[in-house]
Amino acid sequence: MHRRAPGLARLTIAGCLTAAAASAQVVRQEVPGIRNFAKVESTVACAGAITPGAIPEIKKMGYASIINLRLPTEEGADIDGNIAAAKAAGIPYYHIPFSGAKPDPAVVDTFLKTITTPGVQPAFIH
Asked: Is the pTM of this model over 0.70?
């Protein structure tokens, strides 16, 4: 894990643990182009970095949306490439950059509003 993303990791883990607390099953899978993929029941999947090439596979797996919590300055965070790939694949893509160094409660509020919007789940969060 990159040192620059501890807050992102905490937010992602918190989301996964919240789902797990609701008696969800966590299933880990190896998917090309996706680091640390974990499916949490049927509501969300949590992962590390992804490549634009993985986005069509995410859609094939049945996810209704992708929520990216990475900062654009993080290594490998190809935001523009991911947005273009999501548009081409026909899957909604939400970029909600979260900084662990400077946590912003408004970002958390945006994430919660997004994840609870009808049609967003099941969501692939990274």
From this structure: yes
pLDDT tens column, 81-118: 999 999 999 999 999 999 888 888 899 899 999 999 99
Backbone angles phi and psi of 86, in degrees to 5? -65, -40
Q: Are 15 and 46 in contact (CB under 8 A)?
A: yes
Q: Which residues pair with 58 in a beta bridge?
A: none
Residue with tokens 């299933």: 27
Beta strands in the chain (DSSP E): 26-31, 34-40, 44-46, 65-68, 93-95, 123-125
Identify the DSSP state of 25: P
Do 81 and 56 contact (CB within 8 A), yes or no? Answer: no
Chain mean position to CA 18? 15
111 with 53: CB under 8 angstroms? no
Q: What is the DSSP letter of 50?
A: B
